[in-house]
Design brief:
It is a single chain. The protein has two domains: about 80 residues, Helix Hairpins, CATH 1.10.287; about 150 residues, Heat Shock Protein 90, CATH 3.30.565. The protein is about 55% helix and about 20% strand. The chain contains seven helices and seven strands; from the N terminus they run H-H-E-H-H-E-E-H-E-E-H-H-E-E. The chain is globular. The N and C termini lie far apart (about 60 Å).
Length: about 240
């Protein structure tokens, strides 16, 4: 009957998706193995080169090698998150502290562009989440904001209670987003500014954020008043307590 046919087709699709993820995972590992020493050794080789023109060529190789490494790493992470076997280590976390750690982890990149991070989330906002994966979300959002925010810009972190959830907002004063970009920004391999060749992003960072947030039972979306007016990435998480202290 129809129900049995639908169930059979659904199971076939699940098997195909599992095979795809296994193939991507194996391919990613096979690519990552030779890439790791290449990325590590290229800067050392560059320092031993005297000719400036040759150094510029090596810089191109380094930039593309880093892009490949980021692409492979993010593709592996996405395949991992797509697996139903992947389990999160959930614990009660103070959101303020997680943001502080994430800012500190990215302090050097923030200082490079003189971007000021402001953690406006009060202590005592307790969420139920996997700490490493939540820090991965913040790392991706901070990295994204740094890419598209001018020197001397700012990034703000806010949170507010919404029933049994907390809504987290990461806001910057960067390039902003068009209506189309707001709709597509979480799609796999989507990049908001393909004309910029200096960005070694894989186009998977926000897709990974979406997967992590949804695996926590939350939602994620983008807000912006338009190009040149900054961007807010908002997401929800299960709330344990919201004690301002």
């Amino acid at each position: 009957n129809l129900e049995e046919e639908v169930n059979r087709k659904t199971e076939e699709i699940r098997k195909l998706l599992k095979q795809k993820d296994e193939f991507i995972s194996q391919l990613g590992h096979d690519l990552k193995t030779p890439l790791t020493p290449i990325v590590s050794l290229l800067p050392i080789i560059r320092e031993r080169i005297k000719d400036d023109d040759v150094k510029k060529l090596v810089d191109v190789v380094i930039r593309n090698a880093n892009y490949m490494k980021n692409l492979v790493t993010d593709t592996l992470r996405l395949a991992q998150l797509n697996s139903r076997d992947y389990r999160f280590n959930l614990e009660d976390l103070d959101l303020h502290d997680v943001v502080e750690e994430s800012i500190e982890d990215n302090r050097y990149l923030l200082m490079e562009k003189n971007i000021s991070p402001e953690n406006r989330i009060p202590r005592g906002v307790i969420v139920r989440a996997d700490k490493l994966r939540l820090k991965e979300v913040f790392a991706n959002l901070i990295s994204n904001s740094i890419r598209y925010t001018p020197e001397g810009g700012r990034i703000e972190f806010r949170a507010r209670e919404e029933g049994n959830e907390v809504m987290v907002e990461v806001r910057d004063n960067g390039r902003g987003l068009s209506e189309e970009e707001k709709e597509r920004i979480f799609d796999e391999f989507y990049k908001v500014d393909r004309s910029r060749r200096d960005l070694d992003t894989s186009g998977l960072g926000l897709t990974i954020c979406k997967k992590i947030v949804e695996r926590h039972g939350g939602r994620i979306w983008a807000e912006s008043d338009g190009l040149g007016k900054g961007t807010s990435i908002c997401f929800t998480l299960p709330l344990q307590k919201f004690n301002k202290r």
